Automatic annotation (TrEMBL):
InterPro entries: HypE, PurM-like_C_dom, PurM-like_C_sf, PurM-like_N, PurM-like_N_sf. The lineage of its organism: Bacteria, Bacillati, Bacillota, Clostridia, Eubacteriales. Belongs to the HypE family. It comes from Clostridium cibarium. PANTHER family: HYDROGENASE EXPRESSION_FORMATION PROTEIN HYPE, HYDROGENASE ISOENZYMES FORMATION PROTEIN HYPE. Pfam families: AIRS (PF00586), AIRS_C (PF02769). Residues 152-302 form the PurM-like C-terminal domain. It comes from the Bacteria. This is AIR synthase. Residues 33-138 form the PurM-like N-terminal domain. Transmembrane segments: none annotated.
């Protein structure tokens, strides 16, 4: 099998066939595109998300914390605690594991999280350190936002610039190649994009304004996230490439590695659909968060308009990070 997520159809079939029992307390269930599950505890709701870091070798502790807390924010919630699992190969040192845990602790402190448990193990089952975090959040029931909530006619908004995470990973993991194609300022900025991968602030603002769906743009990039939102919501979309915000350093790195920035992992960018597009963009910009309306939710099909040509967006395969040449 190829590296990366299972393909869309295989994953959806697996999820549908393996659900255990159906509990009435579960009000948002797992499905392709729904990164969080939500349990109604009457007084408030618990929100849960889990994901590993497999495509990066640097900043794995920081990434593990933020990608899962971003999922909580995308559901309209506030993260409160995490559990951490570390699987380390037998070639690892205690110093390496301690460094990752220190990074996780530092990022958790910034977000006001408690590390409440987990598991650490050295095993020959892996050939590099794998870090997986489970984030636990909470929200009031009327604030819950689903990936599956996109509505026909909604504006599609992207925050910040796409491929922030992928750009930072490549700049940090392939320093020599990136130094050759970027100016010194661009290179330093690309490495520091890792500090912009939290979407908690935009999640809070969007929940306050009122939105129909939110989705943290992770594996598969913007086009993968759009496909997942549309599939979960039984809708389509049309987006315009010339409206999609992409940093110049990202374009240069994408060209160097022969990859598509629209399909590159993009934690730090939030995909939002709402019937209050201008109001939300204005509110985000007022708080210093770049936001762009890039298209509309439609009745069917996913369309990318590139140089005036309408291209049908197909289901996401593996992230471009796994196609590095």
């Amino acid at each position: 099998m190829k590296e990366g997520k299972l393909n869309f159809d295989d994953l959806r079939e697996m999820i549908q066939k393996n659900k255990g029992v159906k509990r009435e307390e579960v009000i948002v269930r797992n499905d392709v595109g729904e990164d969080c599950s939500v349990i109604d505890f009457k007084n408030s709701c618990g929100i849960f998300s889990t994901d590993p870091i497999t495509g990066a070798t640097e900043n794995v502790g920081k990434l593990a914390v933020h990608i899962n807390c971003n999922d909580i924010a995308s559901s309209g919630g506030t993260p409160i605690a995490i559990l951490v699992t570390i699987l380390a190969p037998i070639t690892s040192s205690l110093q390496e594991i301690n460094k990752i845990m220190s990074e996780i602790s530092e990022e958790s402190a910034k977000l006001g999280l408690e590390i409440i448990g987990g598991h650490t193990e050295v095993t020959s089952a892996v050939n590099k350190i794998v870090v997986s975090v489970t984030a636990i959040g909470r929200s009031e029931k009327n604030n819950i936002v689903k990936t599956a909530g996109a509505t026909i006619g909604d504006d599609i908004i992207v925050t910040k610039d796409i491929a922030l995470e992928g750009t930072a990973i490549l700049a940090n993991d392939y320093e020599e190649r990136c130094k050759k194609i970027l100016s010194s300022d661009e290179f330093e900025e690309a490495k520091l994009l890792i500090d912009k991968i939290s979407v908690l602030k935009e999640g809070i603002i969007a929940t306050r304004i009122g939105v129909n769906s939110m989705h943290d743009i992770t594996e598969g990039g913007l086009l993968g996230a759009l496909f997942e939102v549309a599939a979960a919501s039984n809708t389509g979309f049309i987006v315009y490439e010339d409206k999609i915000p992409v940093k110049e350093s990202t374009k240069k790195i994408a060209k160097e590695f022969s990859i598509d920035p629209l399909r590159l992992i993009s934690s730090g960018c939030m995909l939002i659909t709402t019937d209050k597009g201008k109001e939300l963009v204005d509110a985000l910009r007022k708080e210093g968060i770049k936001a762009s309306i890039v298209g509309k939710v439609t009745r069917s099909k996913g369309i990318l308009v590139s140089n005036g040509v309408e291209l049908v967006v197909k289901e996401p395969k593996r992230d471009e990070l796994f196609n590095i040449k």
